[in-house]
Amino acid sequence: MHRQLQYKKNPRSYGPTCDTSDLAGTGYSFCICSTDADCASYGMGNICKAVAGANPKLKQCTCNTDQDCPTTHPICEGGLFKRCKPLCKRDTDCVQGGVQGTCDTQTGKCSYPSYP
To answer: What is the CA radius of gyration of the chain?
Structure first.
């Protein structure tokens, strides 16, 4: 079962449709997309792509490079699943998954420590 969302109410969700059929197999509902067109005027990235390791029908808006992002969120960052982010201005803008990163104020990009 899918329900259509309103982007204005949730502009940073991963897609315009709420999947309530548990495509991810987690017991939770996720915001999903069906095509790149669903992501075209959207802040997460303009590519609709299947989530790695999940049901191939579980697709979310994402980015591959900075060029896939809007001017409001021009940096494509992330691990397995990337998303468009605004430029950082200070180190406090660079927290990801509980890890504190460092902001390069020249590029607006965050860097995170690597682990052995």
So the answer is: 15
